[in-house]
Amino acid sequence: MPAVPVPTDTRSRPAAWAEGLSAATLSGLALLALGRRETGSPWAPLNAVSHMLWGRRAYWHDDPSTRYTLLGTALHAGSSLLWGGLYTMLRRRRLRPTPANAVTDAAAVTALAAVVDLKLTPRRFTPGFEHRLSPRGMGLFYGSFALGLAVVGLRALSR
Length: 159
Fold this sequence. Notes:
The chain has helices spanning 13-39, 44-49, 51-54, 66-92, 99-120, 135-158. The protein is mainly alpha-helical.
């Protein structure tokens, strides 16, 4: 996923980290499950993310490896943190934060991420896992990403 500016307000950084890590974790687990179901390899979608550095051969590497899996995981987590920063900025601008707008904001940020990832970004910088997952799998991936953002946003309301 492409970069989005992280908020400069230092009070927002812990929230951006929590939301980004939550989204990275849930969507990363979804990638593993979807990879296993759709390709026979849980590692295939995460490996595909590393195409940004290793080129097209990363799309078809199915085994876990430092070269592909570790880099793909790091790139996925890093971009999730950046999108988490955008979600945090959006939530901080809400005059009346509610559970409904926490979920709506998570869906909006995720929809923006999907459009940027899949339509606006040059091919070399797309997520890569779109080459390994079905359209349904992509929908489940982005749904899990939105859920990861929303979970932390909802928890923040209860505090």
